[in-house]
Amino acid sequence: MKHAGPELTFGLVFYSTKWLTKIGEESIVNYMVEYSLNDEQLDQVFHALSDPTRRGMIRMLAQEERTVTELAAPFDMSLAAASKHIKVLEQAGLLQRTVHGRTHTCKLDSSVLARATRYLQFYERFWSAQFDTLEMELNKAKNEEH
Question: Looking at the whole model, is its pTM more than 0.90?
Answer without folding.
Answer: no
